[in-house]
């Protein structure tokens, strides 16, 4: 097992190299660079940037150098000094922006993930075991509503309700008075009060989808002969369902961890914009629009790494859960 | 014996209905029988006769929409038929007083729990043993069912066991709480004959030792004759005949029982069929054919952990007009051999030469794609599973006509005409052409499969277990059809089977395979009555014989590597 994890980690190195190359290529792909979009932005505001300062900036940022030199400078700084470069747009080091946003993103995403699983797995089990019962139909209906309603509508709806009916301050993660305040119990409560909307909004559509997956998986497992065997032993219905078919029905869930992580980060951009959350999605979008190449590149790279880590985690979990996977190695 | 042993379980007028959209279907209809301590009742019947549903009803295990609607199942003072399906009362009986062994030991065991955990669970549940005591008892049980190294086996998973070992684990689980009644639902159907003989021996011995009452459900009259004391024959949900085994086999009164026995006995001797051509040149010859699999190569390549020689230096000749049987147990390489001939599995070494009459011989391994395609119209396959080998979304016309269409044999009207001709040839009504496979029974589906195989006028047919998924009465019909077709169309057959009876009925010559090698080749009758190789002797003697007065299995020869 340990050897396997080590081997997997080793395989990640070339994959990461490939990914970083592709990330860098992608951010270089749009015509022009940050300076062209900067000059056009300045021109739009009626001023102009003289050629000398453009040249000076070009040389400063190394934009005139060939692709591979730029790539090398970028990646070697990241590896050797943890320096992700300079954000042109924000005038700040990328790493500072990155960790701020990443922290919030991972926090909100993880909470959503917990909520998704806490809802989807029990409801899915219930729906599969009591298939075609009233409860199943109700959850199926709610599930499809959850799938069908666009997240931003849901976000707007929840904001409207909590603002007009409960008079709560919504949007962002903190009320203005706590934004810069040091951590305290009141600030924490304020955070929780803001947090539930994004968490619910992000969770709802994924929950709906996962309920359907769980229901289908478990329905398949419930008709397997080993369930009859377990029943013939005299186990109670609850024990046997939890011990046997549910355990097997969870396998596909575990396999999805790999892509759940990055999708929670990039997939909730619209929600984050609507709710004005300091998450990674909006920042990445803005970085791509303004060709803030180092910032965008860093985000894409981090997301690739997260995907790889997610894949590794789900493979390890799968091997722990299912001895057949271990055996095949 | 002066007095009959005590009745443990008494079933009276048991009736089970399956509610369907229109009305309901009566799967079990007024079935009555008694299970006595230390005795075995064989419940016999073909698929769909309701025997498995009866067995499950005894433990209230019939899944909805099935429901017990009448009758009683008395275990002592309790009437199981009256107990709620999910209640505490029935759960206390399941696994403790009555336990069950199922047909598919692989799928009936959880793939993600160790064998030990699954046995211990019963002990903890009913006998309230603590973990340590349960573990000790489980090791003891695994030893009793003759699983080698029980201390290690307890922590293994089902997929690490062979079929026979899995079934033994299943038996250990069923025996854990010393049940009074053991229900075995086709316990050996999925096993090889030699393994079957051993498992049946084991079950019989344990049952006698513990004085359990046993219900053995099977479709195999041979198993019945060799193992049970009493028989109940089920047909369409009813017990049509019941009595001591000797009486049922030798004095059957119900026409269905007589038909069933006749069909079984018919397969105990060679069919009346034309003599094989005396001198004839081989139409197909295999020379030193072999296949080696590399084991344990990961997704990223790397060194193989070992090799498996699935087929090893097999040389055989099939004469024109002859039927050559290939018999062997699972894992003997017989199916792989069949695939190597047409290169659906690429041989590692050796040669296959196809010499059609009046044409130049073809060396199969040198053929390119076009050459192979031509070969596929001359040599065709008939598959084992008539359910899985027909595409459920295609009509019979499309299925049978597909080879014609692919090889561009004629316009659609011509293909239609050919398809109806083929269907009539295999004994089906040409008017059924536009139906889908699900509208047909197993035997009819296999006929469709045969019609498809015949579509391109092949010279050689390779049939891989074509009758093993069929009931015994249907089995002989399909074999008779193949015999007739062989005569009319001048076909040569390679007939792969694990079933000695079918081989003897159908084949002129037999090759016996074991671990990839042919151990013996010879005349079918000789091999089946007086084989010379010890392995063949063991194999033949393990086949149960459908006559309680002439048991064969009990005096069977055993074969081990050292007895060569």
From TrEMBL, chain A:
| Gene3D superfamilies, alphabetized | MetI-like
Q: Where does it live in the cell? A: Cell membrane
Provide the transmembrane region boundaries: 9-29, 104-126, 138-163, 195-214, 248-274, 294-321
Entry-linked Pfam families: BPD_transp_1, BPD_transp_1_N
Q: Does the record's keyword annotation contain Amino-acid biosynthesis?
A: no
One cellular component (GO) term of this entry: plasma membrane
Give me any GO biological process, just one: transmembrane transport
Q: Where is the ABC transmembrane type-1 domain?
A: 102-314
InterPro entries referenced in this protein's UniProt entry, alphabetically: BPD_transp_1_N (IPR045621), MetI-like (IPR000515), MetI-like_sf (IPR035906)
The UniProt keywords, alphabetically, are: Cell membrane, Membrane, Transmembrane, Transmembrane helix, Transport
Q: Looking at the keywords, is Transport present?
A: yes
Membrane topology summary: Multi-pass membrane protein
Q: Which family does it belong to?
A: Belongs to the binding-protein-dependent transport system permease family.
PANTHER family in UniProt: INNER MEMBRANE ABC TRANSPORTER (PTHR30465), OLIGOPEPTIDE ABC TRANSPORTER, PERMEASE PROTEIN (PTHR30465:SF43)
- Name of the protein in question: ABC transporter permease
UniProtKB/TrEMBL annotation, chain B:
Q: Which GO terms label this protein's molecular function in UniProt?
A: ATP binding; ATP hydrolysis activity
Which domain of life does the protein's organism represent? Bacteria
Write out the entry's keywords from A to Z: ATP-binding, Cell membrane, Membrane, Nucleotide-binding, Transport
Q: Which residues form the ABC transporter domain?
A: 11-261, 284-540
Gene Ontology terms, cellular component aspect?
plasma membrane
* SUPFAM superfamilies noted in UniProt: P-loop containing nucleoside triphosphate hydrolases (SSF52540)
What is an example of a Pfam family matching this protein? ABC_tran
Q: Name one GO biological process term.
A: transmembrane transport
The subcellular location is: Cell inner membrane
Membrane disposition: Peripheral membrane protein
For this UniProt entry, what is the primary localization, expressed as one broad class? membrane
Cite the InterPro entries for this sequence: AAA+_ATPase, ABC_Ni/Peptide_Import, ABC_transporter-like_ATP-bd, ABC_transporter-like_CS, Oligopep_ABC_C, P-loop_NTPase
Family listed: Belongs to the ABC transporter superfamily.
| Official protein name in the record | ABC transporter ATP-binding protein
